[in-house]
Design a protein that fits this description.
Helix 1 packs across helix 2. It contains 3 helices and no strands. By secondary structure, it is mainly α. The two termini are about 30 Å apart. The chain is rod-shaped and about 60 Å long. The longest helix has about 40 residues. Helix content is about 80%, strand content about 0%. InterPro entries: PRE. It holds the Pfam family bHLH_ILI. GO terms for molecular function: protein dimerization activity.
Length: about 80
């Protein structure tokens, strides 16, 4: 649903200053493709950080000072 909403917003707000519907469509699709690429990149980075976080937590003692630091960072 997000992608459809993004496309509609681009079509509505991206129309300013452009003439011709084909130019507008190409421009809107380009912006939508860029948004999708950023979302894919963000998803990849999130998955990598999640894997690092799980490895870090599995390698430390739950009662250690390092675990307390991690918990305090995540609570904020």
């Amino acid at each position: 649903m997000f992608f459809l909403e993004a496309y509609v917003l681009v079509m509505v707000f991206g129309a300013r200053g452009l003439t011709g519907s084909s130019l507008l469509e190409k421009s809107a699709w380009k912006v939508l493709e860029e948004v999708c690429e950023h979302l894919r990149s963000f998803t990849k980075e999130t998955k990598e950080l999640n894997a690092r976080y799980h490895k870090l937590l599995s390698d430390i003692d739950k009662d250690s000072p390092q675990a307390a630091i991690i918990r305090s960072l995540l609570d904020n």
